[in-house]
Amino acid sequence: AIPFAAGLIGEHRHEHIAVAGYGLLLTFVGLTFYALWRYASRGHRLIRPDMPADLVSLGTKVVLIAPITYAVATVLALYYPSISQIIYILVPLVYLLPSPIDRLVHFKLAE
User: Fold this and answer.
1) pTM of the entire predicted model
2) What are phi and psi of 14, to 5 degrees?
């Protein structure tokens, strides 16, 4: 699905519907990752048993940033497809940067 949507936006990058369709797919992928995180973190099923609850909660909020941002960019694509495309590019870049949560995880788990 993603290669098709990427090809579609590559060929029709100025078309509102193509850009919005790509955003819908990104939103769906983000929500799927959120569902996986919720499953893994609920009851510490697939995460460390000593992971503090506040850190799990923070992780949940961080995971939700992408799908919410993609959903907003999808609606924006109906009016300003270029701005939406910039948002689609920036969101993954933000996740690549070291964040304060990384330091917090190391600090909390070292306690």
Assistant:
1) 0.87
2) -100, 0
Share of the chain above pLDDT 70, in %: 97
The torsion defined by the Cα of 86, 91, 96 and 100, in degrees rounded to 10, comes to: 130
Question: Which amino acid type is present at position 93?
Answer: L
In the chain, what's the furthest Cα-to-Cα distance?
52
Mean pLDDT, residues 44-65: 90
> Please, are residues 37 and 59 in contact by the beta-carbon 8 Å criterion?
yes
Q: Scan for tokens 């689609």, then name that residue.
A: 88
Identity at 46, one-letter amino acid code: L
Q: What is the mean pLDDT of the chain?
A: 91
